[in-house]
Design goal:
Radius of gyration of chain A: 27 Å
Mean pLDDT of chain B: 80
Helix content of chain B: over 70%
Strand content of chain B: under 5%
Largest interface: A-B, 31 and 34 residues
Number of domains of chain A: 1
Helix content of chain A: 55-70%
Order of helices and strands of chain A: HHHHHHHHHHH
Oligomer: heterodimer
Number of strands of chain A: 0
Largest sheet of chain B: none
Largest sheet of chain A: none
Structural class of chain A: mainly alpha
Structural class of chain B: mainly alpha
Number of domains of chain B: 1
Radius of gyration of chain B: 22 Å
Low-confidence stretches of chain B: none
Order of helices and strands of chain B: HHHHHHHHHH
Number of strands of chain B: 0
């Protein structure tokens, strides 16, 4: 007898899950932001504000080192340049040497601190491995850049205000053009904050970051006209000052405080704006590619 | 039958050498380590030199110092020895402090503590290593500064003063490094204590034109007398009060030695 085995009937395939039957889950707005952001429609404001706040609180929590320290350095420079060298009478641009020096010292503090804040923040995150805390949240490269630079700007402006008050105790000064002074302090801290981000991205060791500071920031700061008037330079060396972008920051800020300047203010404004935009765009491109971030 | 290797004798490298052999070897390794690091990372070294050059250009060329001659000295005669001193001494402090804090935070301190090195050798090795590195910086900076001032007359005395000052600052750097929970803290000590002491050591001018507080800070500064002594040795010119420099500096050296050695000997702050 021939028997035929009836194969077991396969179980009918399960119907595809009905999407309509799934319970509706409403994600919080902050989680839906990235998709929207990459469509170019939204900004993660909450994330951006959090990052800005973190970068500012990071330096304020150690204000003794990040604010008081630079002010002490500025006071020391003022002491050794004015008192120890025994200067008196009329100095450059028709002001006393102390009055001439104070805006430059304030601006030098702004530049060095804005740079230090962003570069140290990024490098510490890279070297200690918590850079993922910056890269994992739904923040785009522009938002990360703005957040980091905001910390540098806030530190630069806070140091500027405290240093100006401290230095003014030795030579009472007003603000001839407050808005101009604020504008140049703002532009300087943005530019140096962006340079700090570039340094933090590029450096793979602390020594490399020190190279940027020693070979770029310090020479440009010292040769920016902080301690001397450009008119005191020999004629064939004067062009060097006009090619130094730091000179325009110091000169513009000095105009805001004292009301006199040695270069074209319009050139300074345009140059700093262009430099900031160009550097921001270049860094945005680099951060989009996560250049040297994951290592 | 396979032969079981005889492992009763430890490998040669595991034999703990006697102290008479280990101590000099460890000391030599510790002393030369900052130099080896400097040579392997020349960018940092050249950065310091660029800073010296800029300061010299600033004070001697750009900022008009004509007429600046305290006690009949020219600006270059006055500034160059002092500038060299503060650069070398600052280098000694930062090198020692960052070396210690680096080993504590990155875990290299365990290698030091497990090695058969007496704490005395450890403290001395760190300090003399930073001192030797500072003298290397001073040598290179001196070559640069020779563009602005004549070379030292009493070279041995100048090197001795630079060395003793650097050793003192190295001990201070070791103590600062041991009591720094983070890298930032070293910068804090540097900015608020070491930098002001160096800047107010009279390297740039006398305390005479300063207000009362400034005069007290300059004249009571433990480094102001050594700076004057160094200047006198450099130009072979007598300077009033030079002898006090030795007392000040030897006192500071003794305090620094005791502080650094005692902290290391007790193991305080060595491990986190």
């Amino acid at each position: 007898m021939k028997t035929t085995s009836i194969p077991p009937s396969p179980s009918p395939p399960l119907p595809p899950p009905s999407l309509s039957a799934a319970p509706e889950v409403t994600l919080p707005a902050v989680l839906t932001t990235p998709a929207a952001r990459y469509n170019g429609t939204r900004v993660n404001w909450r994330g951006l504000a959090t990052l800005c706040s973190r970068e500012s609180r990071r330096f304020l929590s150690i204000a003794g080192q990040t604010v008081i320290g630079p002010v002490v350095s500025a006071l020391l420079f003022l002491a050794i340049f004015t008192f120890a060298l025994g200067r008196s009478g009329i100095g450059p641009l028709g002001f006393s040497y102390t009055a001439f020096l104070i805006p430059g010292l304030v601006m030098m503090s702004v530049m060095q601190n804005a740079f230090a804040n962003t570069s140290s923040s990024l490098m510490t995150a890279k070297f200690q491995g918590n850079i993922v805390d910056l890269l994992m949240p739904p923040l785009g490269p522009a938002e990360i850049l703005v957040g980091l630079v905001t910390g540098g700007v806030v530190r630069g402006l806070v140091v500027a205000a405290v240093a100006f008050l401290a230095l003014s105790a030795f030579q009472p000064l007003g603000l001839a053009h407050p808005l101009v002074a604020f504008w140049f302090a703002l532009m300087a801290s943005v530019l140096l904050g962006l340079l700090g981000v570039l340094s933090g991205l590029w450096a793979e060791r602390w020594e490399q970051a020190a190279v940027i500071t020693n070979f770029v920031i310090v020479p440009l700061s010292f040769l920016s006209g902080t301690f001397y008037s450009v008119s005191s330079l020999p004629d064939n060396w004067r062009w060097l000052a006009f090619w130094n972008p730091f000179f325009y920051m110091v000169d513009g800020f000095r105009y805001g405080v004292l009301g006199v300047h040695e270069s074209s203010l319009r050139t300074g404004v345009v140059l700093l704006l262009a430099a900031n935009f160009a550097l921001f765009f270049a860094l945005w491109l680099l951060m989009r590619r996560h250049w040297r971030l994951w290592d | 039958m396979p032969r079981i290797p005889d492992d009763s004798a430890a490998p040669r490298s595991f034999v703990v050498p006697p102290l008479a052999v280990a101590a000099p070897r460890a000391f030599a390794a510790l002393v030369t380590r900052p130099l080896r690091y400097t040579l392997s990372e020349p960018a940092t070294f050249f950065g310091e030199l660029l800073g010296v050059f800029l300061l010299a250009v600033m004070f001697l060329v750009i900022v008009p110092t004509r007429g600046f001659a305290p006690g009949g000295w020219t600006a270059a005669e006055w500034l160059v020895p002092g500038l060299l001193a503060i650069v070398a001494w600052h280098s000694a402090f930062t090198n020692a402090a960052f070396s210690v804090v680096f080993h504590r935070l990155e875990g290299g301190m365990d290698d030091m503590l497990t090695a058969p090195i007496p704490s005395l050798i450890l403290a001395a090795g760190w300090a003399f290593g930073s001192t030797l590195n500072a003298l290397l910086v001073a040598l290179a900076a001196g070559l640069i500064l020779s563009l602005f001032a004549p070379p030292p007359v009493h070279l041995v005395a100048v090197v001795l003063w630079l060395g003793v000052g650097a050793l003192t600052l190295s001990f201070a750097g070791i103590v600062a490094g041991l009591y720094s929970p983070r890298y930032d803290t070293v910068s804090f000590y540097d900015t608020l204590f070491v930098y002001p002491i160096l800047m107010l050591s009279g390297f740039l001018g006398t305390g005479a034109p300063l207000p009362m507080l400034g005069r007290v800070l300059v004249d009571g500064n433990p480094l102001s007398q050594p700076v004057r002594a160094l200047r006198a040795a450099w130009h072979a010119r007598p300077l009033e009060g030079t002898a006090r420099g030795e007392i000040f500096l030897l006192f500071a050296l003794a305090i620094g030695w005791i502080a650094a050695w005692s902290v290391i000997a007790r193991g305080r702050q060595l491990r986190r």
